[in-house]
Design brief:
- This is Polynucleotide adenylyltransferase.
- By secondary structure, this protein is α/β, with parallel strands linked by helices.
- The protein folds into two domains: 99 residues, no CATH class; 180 residues, Poly(a)-polymerase, middle domain, CATH 1.10.1410.10.
- The chain contains seven helices and eight strands.
- Strand 3 and strand 4 form a beta hairpin.
- It is globular, with a radius of gyration of 19 Å.
């Protein structure tokens, strides 16, 4: 079982669900189904569906009062079994279960955790968590309706911290490293358990300064980045590669250590971006 998502990034909110992946060890690459495979985590869809159906049926047979199957999202690009844990009459925790072909699943989350962990002040993690919270409160993270996922907002926050303008002496101390400054060989493997959440006291006044600069960058410069791909691995804007469907998205956010054409913002619709998200980013400058 691999922990992924917010908990693997160390950025879980009180409202965050737990994302788990069942590792089957039978990726399509390992079984030779691709002549040239660029994704060693790819799993045959039929195996995904069979695994999740078996788990759902087993849980249904338990008739447990503490855990129930809430939703079978099997038509999605990545099939998910959504579970709910209940204590008495209170719904306390959601768990999304998917299927992975290898422990490489979640490497992107572990990379973010490692990046943010290099900031001893804790301000980077607090800043990313605050951006996530803001985006959720503004209802910008509904990917089913064309929004940006919470992970996308984390990637934007990280990229911003990696590319802080050198002329801002009050900001440059918060600059994050890139993969060149980190040991990344172990990212495609994982240990059992949940990574420690990144929580540390932050100096008063730090977050408002970062937020103001972020909203200025995101509202003025980010909308001009539709023709490039933003990467938190290199900390640079690079060539945007064409891939089926995702090239139509108005923003390209490379998935760290994923397939080259993976776009974390693949669900983003242009009308949602231009009419909802960008205006909210602009309004964000006035509330800091």
């Amino acid at each position: 079982i691999v922990v992924q998502g917010s908990y693997a990034q160390g950025l879980a909110l009180c409202s965050s669900d737990v994302d788990l992946a069942i590792v089957t060890g039978t990726s399509r690459c390992a079984r030779g189904q691709r002549r040239e495979c660029d994704d060693d985590d790819a799993v045959d869809r039929r195996l995904m569906m069979a695994t999740l159906r078996s788990l759902a049926d087993a849980l249904d047979e338990l008739h447990s009062e503490e855990i129930r199957v809430a939703l079978r999202v099997f038509s999605a690009r990545m099939p998910v079994l959504r579970l709910r844990f209940v204590a008495g009459s209170e719904d306390v925790l959601g768990v999304d279960v998917s299927v992975a072909g290898s422990a490489a699943r979640g490497a992107c989350d572990r990379y973010v955790h490692r990046l943010l962990g290099r900031d001893a002040s804790g301000s980077a993690a607090a800043f990313c968590r605050l951006i996530k919270h803001w985006a959720k409160r503004k209802q910008l993270t509904n990917t089913l309706r064309g929004g940006l996922s919470s992970f996308c907002f984390v990637l934007l926050a990280v990229f911003f911290l990696q590319t802080l303008p050198p002329g801002r002496a009050d900001l440059i101390k918060h600059r994050l490293p890139t993969h060149r400054d980190l040991p990344v060989r172990s990212l495609r493997t994982t240990r059992s358990g949940c990574p420690a959440q990144l929580v540390a006291p932050v100096a008063v006044g730090t977050l408002p300064v970062l937020l103001e600069a972020f909203f200025q960058w995101a509202s003025q410069e980010l909308p001009q980045c539709s023709s490039v791909a933003l990467s938190v691995v290199t900390g640079q804007a690079g060539l945007r590669l064409r891939s089926k469907g995702s090239f139509r998205a108005p923003l390209q956010l490379d998935v760290p250590f994923g397939v080259a054409t993976d776009n974390a913002a693949r669900c983003l619709r242009r009308d949602v971006w231009e009419q909802l998200i960008v205006p909210e980013l602009a309004r964000g400058r006035s509330v800091v």
